[in-house]
Amino acid sequence: MRIAMLQNNYVVGDLVGNAAKIASSVHAASQARPDLCLCSELSLLGYPPLDLLLNKGFIDASWRILKELAQTLRKTPPVLVGLAEPNTRQEGRPLWNSAALLAGGEVKNVFHKTLLPTYDVFDEDRYFEPFDEPGWFELGGLRIGVTICEDIWNDKDFWKSRRYRLDPIARLASQGVHCIVNLSASPFHLGKHAFRQKMLSELARKHGLPLIYVNQVGGNDDLVFDGRSSVFSAAGALIATGKAFAEDLVVADLDSFPGKNAQALEQQDEVSCQEQEAWKALILGTGDYLRKTGFSKALLGISGGIDSSLVAAIAAHALGPENVLGVLLPSPYTSSASIEDALELAANLGIKSMTIPIDELMTGFDQALKSAFAGRPADVTEENIQARIRGNLLMALSNKFKYMLLTTGNKSELAVGYCTMYGDMAGGLAVIADVPKSLVYALARWLNATHGRVIPERVISRPPSAELRPNQTDQDSLPAYADLDEILQRYVQEHRSDEEIIRDGFDPDVVQRVVKLIKAAEFKRRQAAPGLKITDVAFGSGWRMPIAAHWPL
Prior knowledge:
Elements: E1 2-7, H1 15-30, E2 36-38, H2 56-72, E3 79-86, E4 95-103, E5 106-112, E6 135-139, E7 142-148, H3 156-159, H4 168-174, E8 179-184, H5 192-207, E9 211-215, E10 217-220, E11 223-226, E12 230-232, E13 238-241, E14 248-253, H6 274-292, E15 298-301, H7 306-319, E16 324-328, H8 336-349, E17 352-355, H9 359-369, H10 380-401, E18 404-407, H11 411-416, E19 429-430, H12 437-451, H13 457-461, H14 481-493, H15 498-503, H16 508-520, H17 522-526
Parallel strand pairs: 1-2, 2-3, 7-8, 8-9, 15-16, 15-18, 16-17, 18-19
Antiparallel strand pairs: 1-14, 3-4, 4-5, 6-7, 9-12, 10-11, 12-13
Helix pairs in contact: 1-2, 6-7, 6-12, 7-8, 7-12, 9-10
């Protein structure tokens, strides 16, 4: 048996465009004469469709277009397409998360997802009813078991406990299927690929069944999907894989199916390190976010600092340097070194640059507020005004030239509120909002080592500073970033208490201060631009903390 995996980049809600992409991929795959073509989860709708699923007109249109697609593909091999089907029962949620089998110009069968994730970024129980049983169909004398994403994430031996009461793979194995196919839309985070490969390999080996896993690729809002569709033999060997962070068509020839153990691939992944993986994810997420929201160009403030330098590099690679504008907004506190480094960065990347000094605007604000602030010393208020002047100017340029403004704050700063609402937080996409400061530096060093000296060395070596007052450094207000990121890893990523973190050897005063800052900054994060998710716990759709809360401060 030969199976084609259609690893595509879909646009949420674009039913016509997604159907056309599926049809094009199936026709391309047909040249290899596969027996079956597989799409990813909810492929016709794009994943995640969120509250579009509540729109009956959207669901009705998807089925009309599915039937048209079936006619378009009437002379091709059968194809499994992901979409939502109305729940015909009198109870439960209104939809099933489904996979439709198209063959001979008709919808031959429909299979439903049995396990619905409601953790991290997932909220499928809001829309879908879990189905009672996984399904299978017969093709060429073989039984093909059909599962959808979460259905494969429940092996009791791998997880050491059942996450759900039903084990769809065990159920299908007991029904005599000859292989398992899985339609997925599995969001990326650092380290997930290796974990997922191990899980899939052990699942195939445990049941002695070949496993074909098809994953979506591309960026949709804050989520990035890495593709890497995979085929595992009955012995758990990886025998075919799709590209990382790119569309791909993978045809796996399983003529030994379901018997002999196929030879494992020698090269399993073209991504060699964490920095490269993060870099690819950020480029894909940035490019897709702009393209899918109707933008082709971006601008950002470049300060000569490490964060804006990295974001500028990401934007240049994602959009092309000719489509990126870097804006210098120097104040009286901006050092000559910062201006030199920002201009050198722009030249290295080949992006356009513009300089707008803010000295006179700062003076204007001082005069306007002079009587209101009489008798009060300068403090963080004046520093925030500088950031808001810059944000106002950048948004004006964004409006005038129809460029999307990219914000440049990192995860460490966003966690503790070291950012200014309507200032440096202004913009349409927070590119590195899920990148801790330590990883920002690692990415900058990796970029220079692999792409030539892109970021000026002085940007990496000198102490980071917002330059909002004379001789300011970030460490005037924050713990050393190495310590801060270790505390954030434990508190945000691992959900450990401050008491547990202190027992790990961290200074109690520092830990309690950081935890207090995290909680106090929740209202800021709720108003931040969407940030690309690259860690297992990101601020955004997967972080659901109350703002008005008192436990405990």
